Amino acid sequence: TEPALIRNFCIIAHIDHGKSTLADRMLQLTGVVEQRQMRAQYLDRMDIERERGITIKSQAVRMPWASDGTPHVLNMIDTPGHVDFTYEVSRSLAACEGCILLVDAAQGIEAQTLANLYLAMENDLTIIPVLNKIDLPAAQPDKFAAELAHLIGCDPDDVLRVSAKTGDGVPELLDEVIRQVPAPVGDADAPARAMIFDSVYDAYRGVVTYVKVVDGRLGRRERIQMMSTGATHELLEIGVNSPEMTPSDGIAVGEVGYLITGVKDVRQSKVGDTVTWQRNGATEPLGGYKDPRPMVFSGLYPIDGSDYPALRDALEKLQLNDAALVYEPETSVALGFGFRVGFLGLLHLEVIRERLEREFGLDLIATAPNVVYQVTMEDGSEHTVTNPSEFPVGKIAEVREPVVRATLIAPTEFIGAIMELCQARRGAMQGMDYLSEERVELRYTLPLAEIVFDFFDALKSKTRGYASLDYEPTGEQAAALVKVDILLHGDKVDAFSAIVHKDKAYAYGVKMAGKLRELIPRQQFEVPIQAAIGSRVIARETVRAIRKDVLSKCYGGDISRKRKLLEKQKEGKKRMKMVGRVEVPQEAFIAALSSD
Ligand code: GDP
Ligand code: MG
Fold it and tell me: Where does the signal peptide begin and end (predicted)?
């Protein structure tokens, strides 16, 4: 197809504003998916996505649509909606020339709407504002059309109104996409350059790579090169999704499609990378490539130690499909053998953990998530800390932590509550704007560490669920951070070491020591539980001693009964962990680690 007849667009929306439903309607209207095949949220393929109603992996689908009698090709690129995947969202947007900004006509603009809008603006996309769910009795289209128009600087009459549910207004919207979204431009005669905006592992076909061709053409059987690594491959198959994979001879300027080279690992086909020909290829990659960088780390341990090899195999499998997932083996006094795993954010962590438990049948315990710290020592040496128990000892000059730019939207009555929460979490206010008389946008920079720990829940409960939050990483800042260790009878329990702000160290120490006192059974001797910063103890609890002698109950008597008792005690000990001289049931550690 010639570029003038192509339109590449995406839909950006806050969760539940109807993106998947609108995509479904478009597939149906353009005849790409027949009525009888249609099931709700056709494009959301992963089970977890369907259940949680979130889109994790983006896809692209090609649809024919004739406007004024001229047949066009529409490429709809689905973007992952969640903050953890900002980079992938930005690459999907970079593959488009325009976007539909979809807003629920009963809800108005939310934080995710804004965060995605900012990304769309950074990518110079044409923005088509659309109100959805106009069929709802609670819809207030006039009010929210004004809000949207004010936000993007257009006339309220230019805000389209649709119902993705009934299909009302959707054909007109497709016409508008053709009218307003610019056709892609590129140099058809230049060496091929295609941008990877998604790559997905398929058990049968290996990695399926989604690209947008910017210059030139990629053809079947050609040899290609990944510009970030120089790795070369043969194009075994190339084609478009419509909506199932449909092979073709090749794809050219402005077109969106998929490539199959037989590689088995998505890390060989990285989002943001540029694909070119192996011979006479382009010399300059397209801009915007970044290596995926894990932002949050957690230790994952099998509850049953014999599941360790199964956990390793499962992580290996998941990594084939997830270039952002990193892990390395780790051992813990309290938890045994496990892995330190890096994630893009909390949702990513949750999704991986759930897949490990559900798809691989593993029972896992996760240590409290932590961010990545940069530590400069007084002697000038630098350390990257992904595990609090590896925080360097000695003279520290500076500790830096990652910070995010957060956008919060809520009814004005909650301004006070939100400011209080952000302040308690070491936030710095950057600005505040009224979207309308009743709703306000607050902008903060916050340490990522303060957000990964139950911030979202706290926000929801302080605002009765009315606030929405989105954030993106903006760099790092120096902060007064210290490592707090928890000691049992003088020995460190690694899984409980945490890096916290010095003003919060005492509260953390008291809380953990208190929790463990409840959970650790009495021993033959007194066990002090201490929280300490270096050698300075900041909190202390004590588990009093008891004398427990199983044999004393059956003096003299039956020898076989004695043996049975001893064996029973041995059984019980299997699930015990030794911390120095102290015997602790693993359940106690697990209970102490799970959030309250
Ligand atoms: P997404 O999270 O943006 O993909 O939103 P979904 O497409 O999953 O829609 C969220 C909910 O809103 C679902 O229950 C949909 O059935 C419902 N919904 C979507 N569009 C409409 C609409 O136009 N009218 C009504 N009444 N409900 C809608
Ligand atoms: Mg969806």
Answer: none
